[in-house]
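Batch manifest, entry 17 of 40.
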Amino acid sequence: MKPMVCICCIDQACLRVPVILLILLFLTVPVPAVGIETPETSSHSIGIEYPNIITPEMSWHKCLNTPLIGSSYIVQQTSDGGYLMFGRSESKNATQDENRQDPGYWIVKLNPGGDIVWQKIYRGRDRTDSMAVYQSYSCGYDSGGISGTDAENAIGNMSTDRSWVAKFTHDGDISWKKDLGSAFHAEIHSIQQTGDAGYIIAGNTGLPGGDGSGGRADRDYWIGKMSPSGEITWKKTFGGTKDDLGYCIRQTIDGGYIVVGASASDDGDVTGNHGDFDYWVVKLTPNLEISWQKSLGGSKNDTPSFVQQLSDGGYIIAGASASNDGDVTGNHGDLDYWLVKLTPGGELSWQKSYGGKADDEVPCIRQTRDGGYIVVGQSESRDGDVTGNHGNYDYWVIKLATDGALKWEKCFGGNRYDAGQSVVQTSDGGFVVAGISSSHDGDLTGITG
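Output type: structure tokens
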């Protein structure tokens, strides 16, 4: 059964296949103000000011016919004002049709209006469990970023038992691909181009002493540095005797690195665990020594998804928390968005829980040009901070002030499963949000295929 746009078929006996829902939120035209742009790794300084917007207006939305089963997506704006989306499929399970061919990866270039310019499919193997993507020409430590003759992108993944990193041209063709091997079962969750035009990758490894990298029992954070041509120049593990799962890494303005993930350990490199999984934040020097590390959370499960260095040198971390003790206050029930602001030295500046009594999970946060934050995820709640849920899970987008106070929030979706997965601020001051949707009503009314 071929996936259709927005809905596969209307018979309840048929399988509904999630499709991409791409939304552009249009905000009032920003007023220019004095300011500068800093490197992506430290986000943006305050470059423009915005009116006191209460709620956003949707400019357009697109449902794209996805070839992937159980997919998730990352979106970025490109220098031509269009968008680039990377998608990958989840692991197969017993409910899926084993005879159906699963492409594994889908790369889509869109024009500024959200129409497809080109698309590429790369077929995987039995599993495509993790993916990270970074547009290489948009990063660096000087204005304009890393120079080059064309725009290329790097993507990392674990397929079956082998991890690999690939670089793509601006047309979506593979420039190079490096197999990291299966000896240490490294799962790659994050990749970023570094100031020397190489790449820093992060994830976790599952074998003690894997490939000579010094891993301990269970899974550890695994950090690797690659040359511009994709050769591994060094690798290192961090953690304790329980699971330590690295989810996001960014190079910092001092040439070091900030890594976040979930840790159940309270020994080895890890101190201060509050119970179950905590956010574990590790600041590394340029030589890969631990400058400081911090466990943040409470007695229940606390799992981060994203970190970004801010214009003040501090850090913003987003994830989900079920706790309401320890470092966590204000939980509304089940999982909440849990947002943490740290000082440059790793001290807790503030923390905020947002959500309702049902599950609210966040995969992405970005500092905005007004110094605040835009956050996207999925919410099943209809109370607390969440209003306007259409049924089941919705995209839930929230805008925060510099101090983390809620400025506005909005649900997008229909009466089936809709999950926001990625958000970026666009060049006109609005925001583009990408994720998956199984709905064909609510905000998706009139979409047919």
